[in-house]
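The following record pairs a protein chain with its ligand, S-adenosylmethionine.
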Amino acid sequence: MTMEQAEWQVVRKKKSTKNQKVNPKEQTVLKTEIYLCDTVQERKNVIQKLYSTMEDLRLSEFWKTCQECVQRVPPLASEEYDSNRGVVCSLSPDIIQEGVIQSFDCVCYGLGNFSSCIISRHQLAFLLLFLEQFKIPRSQSYVFDPLFSQMEVSVLQQLGLTVLLDNEEGKRVVHKPTVFYMLHCGKALYNNLLWCNWSQEALSNMIIIGNSFKSIEERLLSRILQRDYMYIHQGLQIVEETPFPESCQYNDVFNDTSIHYFPMQKLRTLPADVWLLQEEPQYHECEDLEIIRNQKT
Ligand SMILES: C[S@@+](CC[C@H](N)C(=O)[O-])C[C@H]1O[C@@H](n2cnc3c(N)ncnc32)[C@H](O)[C@@H]1O
């Protein structure tokens, strides 16, 4: 419910209070109380629906197949990933050298309005199951969508997830193994992410669950891909992609989704000069950018 709708309700309730004059101060308190009650109830409803979606998903054949599919992806495979202890055979050589065992972080961009949109709610339910499965603490899961309402932010916080306050435009530098969960997001978000992690070390620490890079390549004119999304274009040579299983039931939710990672063997095949690419993407010539820019920059 928007603040406007809450105000509208307040006026109705005041009218129904017979022969009782409420002074303006009391009226404000009343308005605030009713608004808080409404949002608390709304949050409860959203969380209830979310948990019920999670349970449906947990029992589905799709979740079972997905787990098998995810577990075949080497960085998350059981021989490399001990869900009780974290990344055993770490993705990053530096981390192996230091002998550090650590769990993944998770970053989720572009979830959408999960309180009103059923697709987004299913994606959030999947995220929570995924975190549970790989024992990634919810507090190490960072979520951001510029369209989240205040109530959705509160729900995410109540669930224990960390809501990011700034629009990073996907420019998040990775310092440890990190899963990016960004379903049906704009191409610029993936391109920015690859740009700011454009090194063997950083890319080898990343898993991206999101729009199939192969499909992006197939759908876009090669000239446009090279001009506007240079890092996706270069990334295609070094990425390993596993498509999510197909499902009639969840087609709208997970269509065109793949798990991407960058195996060190492939990263080492790129010529040295490709790693010298540093230019920040600008998208000046992009007609439809598909992402919301940070207004502060
Ligand atoms: C096509 S919608 C996908 C929504 C949902 N994941 C789905 O599959 O229906 C793209 C989402 O990306 C979000 N988005 C746009 N710019 C963003 C940014 N800079 N950072 C994070 N998310 C962004 C939009 O607000 C929107 O919710």
